[in-house]
Amino acid sequence: MGRVLIDTVGLVKDYYLGTHTVHALRGVSLRVEAGEFVAVMGPSGSGKSTFMNLLGCLDRPTAGRYVLDGEDVSSLSRDALALLPRASALENVALPLLYGGAPRGDPHARARQGLAAVGLAPFETHHPNQLSGGQQQRVAIARALINEPSLILADEPTGNLDTRTSVEILSLFQQLNRQGMTVVLVTHEPDIAEYATRVLTFRDGRLLHDQPVTIRRDAQAVLATLPRGDES
Ligand SMILES: Nc1ncnc2c1ncn2[C@@H]1O[C@H](COP(=O)(O)OP(=O)(O)OP(=O)(O)O)[C@@H](O)[C@H]1O
Ligand SMILES: [Mg+2]
């Protein structure tokens, strides 16, 4: 068994609405090893986002334990995905370097590399409203990666995107995963889940299934079969 990155034991999350209690998670225990690519599925309201928010330390469990990489979970980034509308793509990507204490190297040079890595080098001076939805999503991903995290948590990252743009984002995640990054991604779509190596299915706040993906899709190969859009 490899290094355990995520270890949850009996995670419970209740939301209190006046006198009413919503049992969003009813005891979820699971382990994810470093280097896995996990898809989280399940019907609306089954607790997927609640679970992701706990994994990302955006919220605290009502009960249960969460050990991230064997230690304290507070070091994880809490940056929202929203881009700053008045800043260029480059400035948006450089942002975490500017408020993260003394940056290593030139922030703009590193941000430029980050943008190039998601295929947006020619767009560095564009503002978010001058970019397509998929390009904005890639700027947000470049920004999230600029401090070199070892875990990516993505809640429906392909939610409103067309097929080709979705597969481009999955291709990026598969590439990062091959470089050793652990990925946990929520999706409603079974065919998107097939880009992962393992699928967790939630139902009514519980983990219903935990299955390996037997025939994994390769985003690069799928991209080659899709007609090119106009963008980048
Ligand atoms: N902040 C909140 N306050 C009260 N109830 C909440 C809150 N967030 C979620 N819930 C409730 O908790 C349950 C699980 O919600 P959650 O958002 O985790 O579901 P989900 O699986 O992500 O659904 P979707 O696929 O629609 O995004 C639902 O019944 C939801 O209404
Ligand atoms: Mg959700």
CATH-level-2 architecture of the largest domain: 3-Layer(aba) Sandwich
Q: Could you describe the largest sheet, including whether it forms a barrel?
A: 5 strands, mixed
The helical percent reads 25-40%
Query: Can you list the ligands bound to this structure?
Result: adenosine-5'-triphosphate, magnesium ion
Give the strand content: 25-35%
Describe the fold and architecture.
Helix content is 30%, strand content 27%. It is an alpha/beta fold and 232 residues long. It has 2 domains: 1-69 and 151-232, 3-Layer(aba) Sandwich (Rossmann fold); 83-149, no CATH class. The strands form 2 sheets. A 5-stranded mixed sheet has the order 5-6-3-7-8, with helices on both faces. Helix 2 (89-98) packs across helix 3 (107-117), helix 3 (107-117) crosses helix 4 and helix 5 packs antiparallel against helix 7. The chain is globular and about 50 Å long. It starts with a strand and ends in a 7-residue tail after the last helix. Residues 74-80 have low confidence and may be disordered. Magnesium ion binds next to helix 1. Magnesium ion binds at residues 48-49, 155.
